[in-house]
UniProtKB/TrEMBL annotation:
<dbReference type="InterPro" id="IPR000182">
    <property type="entry name" value="GNAT_dom"/>
</dbReference>
<feature type="domain" description="N-acetyltransferase">
    <location>
        <begin position="1"/>
        <end position="119"/>
    </location>
</feature>
<keyword id="KW-0808">Transferase</keyword>
<dbReference type="GO" id="GO:0007064">
    <property type="term" value="P:mitotic sister chromatid cohesion"/>
</dbReference>
<dbReference type="InterPro" id="IPR016181">
    <property type="entry name" value="Acyl_CoA_acyltransferase"/>
</dbReference>
<dbReference type="Pfam" id="PF00583">
    <property type="entry name" value="Acetyltransf_1"/>
</dbReference>
<dbReference type="InterPro" id="IPR051556">
    <property type="entry name" value="N-term/lysine_N-AcTrnsfr"/>
</dbReference>
<dbReference type="GO" id="GO:0031415">
    <property type="term" value="C:NatA complex"/>
</dbReference>
<dbReference type="GO" id="GO:0008080">
    <property type="term" value="F:N-acetyltransferase activity"/>
</dbReference>
<keyword id="KW-0012">Acyltransferase</keyword>
<protein>
    <recommendedName>
        <fullName>N-acetyltransferase domain-containing protein</fullName>
    </recommendedName>
</protein>
Length: 125
């Protein structure tokens, strides 16, 4: 495993093994990966933080989160990254916050927090 990928994945929290990280391969070449972690909010609610992804990998995390009754998923996107912002909006993410000077080595240094709130369906009686 690539050392950078290992470092990215080693801090995943409470997802069952191999569910907080996933890689996509084409002809034995890694063409995408996703890493996420569960975080507890004040009051005890749990949300998912996404660190990197692609379409199929994002769908994997959305499906997994829904099955585990996670109601919130969020991530950071640089404010000038319109392609990424539009990508996430297609999946129902919305801009919920702007953080000034979030990044230290890139311009612009500001980011948006994009959040997707998942409505849990109630089991039929």
């Amino acid at each position: 495993m690539d050392p950078l990928v290992f470092i990215l994945f080693r801090n995943l929290l409470s997802f069952p093994p191999d569910q907080g990280k996933k890689s996509a391969y084409y002809s034995d070449i890694c063409v995408g990966s996703i890493a996420c972690r569960l975080e507890k909010k004040e009051g005890g609610a749990v949300r998912v933080y996404i660190m990197t992804l692609g379409t199929k990998l994002l769908n994997h995390v959305l499906d997994l989160s829904s099955k585990q009754n996670i109601s919130e998923i969020y991530l950071h996107v640089q404010t000038n990254n319109e392609e990424a912002i539009n990508f996430y909006k297609k999946f129902g993410f919305e801009i919920t916050e702007t953080i000034q000077n979030y990044y230290t080595n890139i311009t612009p240094p500001d980011c948006y927090v994009l959040t997707k709130f998942i409505t849990q369906s109630q089991p039929k009686k």
